[in-house]
């Protein structure tokens, strides 16, 4: 057999296996929806598909699915980027210097078990409904609309969610660098900054990127809770809660599916990047 | 008599365990190493061989006594003293040639100089065809050859080797010993080679230092006066081996 044909048929077989469970799930959903026959409790897959197949259509006078997802993405990225910018340098320092680790570990560890949602009352008291627009002083125009949609309270909740996975993986990424690598760099004449930038960071990179991937997932999961906060009038999480109050379960499910798809997509992109960039890491095991 | 390149004077190293117990790893160790010598240090495991090498490299500090290089006390690693480790120590995310050029990169040499030098040392260890490969694509013996090339590319005066062939299979090990001697004869560096294999020490060394254990010290200094390449079938080889093995056995049974 031609190797290309063999590769293709192998891929087709793989895709078939992947599709079995989703198909079974949809069939069961279809029959359940039919027997319940109440679209508030369980709308049929066809209704939800109808919504998903027109993602740029205005829904329950709240804008389209795509528009709401876009606003949600902006919020997640704002909180996530802040978390990454703080957690990576802190994690690297904590991983390398025992004293800095001792200084921060207990303190940071105290906050780790607190679910992001538990911060809501405090965050509201602190930030209210102020947003990036309040911070930057932009008061009109299209930029205002977007900036005003990124509420500080939401960014904080998302920040908390993303911070810990990134921090932990940076700490352990650096801690697990083989001592021989550092020693051998030293005898070759490496300065302290060489050790940092040419040994520690590249060696810890796979672990850090893996933490960033997990952090993005958690940040995305914090979205719905963040968007339930007052001052929110848009976003996919808000769309879901609002649809619930007016008993549009089909919109709720379409929103949930969108969250899942976008999250999985981001995760896959990260994974492809990791596999491409860090081939050496899989192969040295 | 020429000046020794490395002088170890009254060296002692004590560790403290987590329970606060004091462990003497090395006590009252004296040794002079001369330029172009090939020294092998043999000793039972745990006798402080590796610790000694790490102190000479400047990676560990002595508890008391003095280790000096060309008359200057050693307090931190320097480019004049290179080291090859037992475990594979190549950076897995760099290609073979970039690994070999690493010391020159730390020395802020230009990329073209780095690559030129690295290629010449890769040729010396016979791996120029693997310049663009990654360490994980190489066998253990090849990786150690790259590590040797990397240490030599830095042009050190002294090369320390901590059981560099310990993880290799017997056949590869013998090949590597031959290659190391060829490299040593071409470059005429001073080599301090730690091993627990008596056979390896006799095959390689001008001078063998047999270490006592608990605490580690110099038990015996043996000059090997056999012409190279040495023939393992030579009766002198066997006599020397059994003599050293006897000394090591004393050290091992002493502990019990």
From TrEMBL, chain A:
It is a multi-pass membrane protein. Belongs to the binding-protein-dependent transport system permease family. Keywords: Cell membrane, Membrane, Transmembrane, Transmembrane helix, Transport. One of its GO terms (cellular component) is plasma membrane. It comes from Sporotomaculum syntrophicum. CDD domains: TM_PBP2. SUPFAM superfamilies: MetI-like. InterPro entries: MetI-like, MetI-like_sf. Its main location: membrane. GO terms for biological process: transmembrane transport. Gene3D superfamilies: MetI-like. This is Aliphatic sulfonates transport permease protein SsuC. Residues 69-270 form the ABC transmembrane type-1 domain. The lineage of its organism: Bacteria, Bacillati, Bacillota, Clostridia, Eubacteriales. It is found in: Cell membrane. The gene is ssuC_5. It holds the Pfam family BPD_transp_1. The chain crosses the membrane at residues 12-32, 69-96, 117-138, 150-174, 214-240, 252-273.
TrEMBL record, chain B:
It comes from the Bacteria. InterPro entries: AAA+_ATPase, ABC_transporter-like_ATP-bd, ABC_transporter-like_CS, ABC_transporter_ATP-bind, P-loop_NTPase. Its EC number is 3.6.3.-. It holds the Pfam family ABC_tran. Keywords: ATP-binding, Hydrolase, Nucleotide-binding, Transport. CDD domains: ABC_NrtD_SsuB_transporters. Residues 6-240 form the ABC transporter domain. One of its GO terms (molecular function) is ATP binding. The keyword Metal-binding does not apply. SUPFAM superfamilies: P-loop containing nucleoside triphosphate hydrolases (SSF52540). This is Aliphatic sulfonates import ATP-binding protein SsuB. It comes from Sporotomaculum syntrophicum.
């Amino acid at each position: 057999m031609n190797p290309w044909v063999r590769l293709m048929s192998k891929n087709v077989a793989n895709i078939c296996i992947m599709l079995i469970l989703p198909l079974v799930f949809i069939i069961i959903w279809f029959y359940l929806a039919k027997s319940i026959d109440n679209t508030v409790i369980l709308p049929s897959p066809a209704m939800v598909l109808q919504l998903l197949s027109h993602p740029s259509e205005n829904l329950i006078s709240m804008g389209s699915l795509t528009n709401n997802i876009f606003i949600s993405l902006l919020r997640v990225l704002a909180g996530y980027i802040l978390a990454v910018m703080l957690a990576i340098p802190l994690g690297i320092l904590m991983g390398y210097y025992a004293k800095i680790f001792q200084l921060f570990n207990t303190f940071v560890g105290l906050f780790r078990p607190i679910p992001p949602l538990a911060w809501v009352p405090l965050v509201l008291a602190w930030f209210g409904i102020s947003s990036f627009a309040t911070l930057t002083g932009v008061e009109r125009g299209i930029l205002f609309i977007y900036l005003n949609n990124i509420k500080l309270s939401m960014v904080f909740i998302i920040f908390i969610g993303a911070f810990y996975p990134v921090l932990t993986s940076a700490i352990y990424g650096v801690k697990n660098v083989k001592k021989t690598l550092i020693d051998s760099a030293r005898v070759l004449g490496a300065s302290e900054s060489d050790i940092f930038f040419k040994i520690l960071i590249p060696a810890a990179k796979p672990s850090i990127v893996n933490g960033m991937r997990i952090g993005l997932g958690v940040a995305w999961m914090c979205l719905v809770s963040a968007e339930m906060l007052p001052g929110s009038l848009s976003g996919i999480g808000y769309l879901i809660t609002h649809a619930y109050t007016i008993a549009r379960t089909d919109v709720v499910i379409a929103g949930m599916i969108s969250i899942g798809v976008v999250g999985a997509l981001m995760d896959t992109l990260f994974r492809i990047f990791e596999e491409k960039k860090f081939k050496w890491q899989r192969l040295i095991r | 008599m020429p000046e020794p390149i490395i002088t170890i004077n009254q060296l002692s190293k004590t560790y403290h365990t987590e329970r606060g117990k004091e462990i003497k790893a090395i006590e009252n160790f004296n040794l002079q190493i001369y330029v172009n010598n090939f020294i092998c240090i043999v000793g039972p495991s745990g006798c402080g061989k590796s610790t000694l090498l790490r102190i000479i490299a400047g990676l560990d500090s002595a508890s008391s006594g003095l280790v000096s290089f060309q008359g200057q006390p050693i307090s931190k690693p320097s480019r004049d003293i290179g080291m090859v480790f037992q475990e594979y120590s190549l950076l897995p995310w760099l290609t073979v040639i970039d690994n070999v050029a690493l010391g020159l990169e730390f020395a802020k040499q230009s990329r073209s100089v780095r690559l030129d030098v690295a290629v010449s040392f890769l040729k010396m260890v016979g791996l120029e065809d693997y310049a663009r490969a990654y360490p994980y694509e190489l066998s253990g013996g090849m990786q150690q050859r790259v590590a040797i090339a990397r240490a030599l590319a830095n042009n050190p005066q002294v090369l320390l080797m901590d059981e560099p062939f310990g993880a290799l299979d017997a056949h590869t090990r013998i090949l590597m010993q031959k290659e190391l001697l060829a490299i040593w004869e071409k470059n005429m560096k001073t080599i301090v080679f730690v091993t627990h294999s008596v056979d390896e020490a006799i095959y390689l060394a001008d001078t063998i230092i047999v270490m006592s254990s608990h605490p580690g010290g110099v038990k015996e200094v043996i000059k090997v006066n056999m012409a190279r390449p040495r023939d393992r079938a030579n009766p002198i080889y066997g006599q020397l081996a059994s003599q050293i093995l006897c000394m090591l056995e004393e050290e091992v049974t002493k502990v019990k």
